[in-house]
Amino acid sequence: MTDYCAFSNNHKCIKWTDYGLTRHELEEADELCHGNWVEIQHLRNYIEQLQELLKGHGIDIPPEY
Question: What is the mean pLDDT of residues 37-48?
Fold first, then answer.
């Protein structure tokens, strides 16, 4: 597929433009997902450390919802 289209006034292919936008959106989504996963891992480690501190001091951890 190319950017050229003989059937449009400005010779720009609408499908090519749509492909480019979709590809860009997928790249952004992939970056956001990776960033979110890193943050989730960090928060999970933080929660585990806090739970160990609470247990070490004899404090019960409330059940999760």
Answer: 96
SS3 9: coil
> CA Rg, the chain, in Å?
25
pTM: 0.58
Sign of CA dihedral 13, 18, 21, 23: negative
The burial class, CB within 10 Å (0-12 / 13-18 / 19+), for 13 is middle
Q: How many Å apart are CA 44 and CA 6, to the nearest integer?
A: 55
Burial pattern 15-28, b for ≥16 Cβ within 10 A else e, equals eeeeeeeeeeeeee
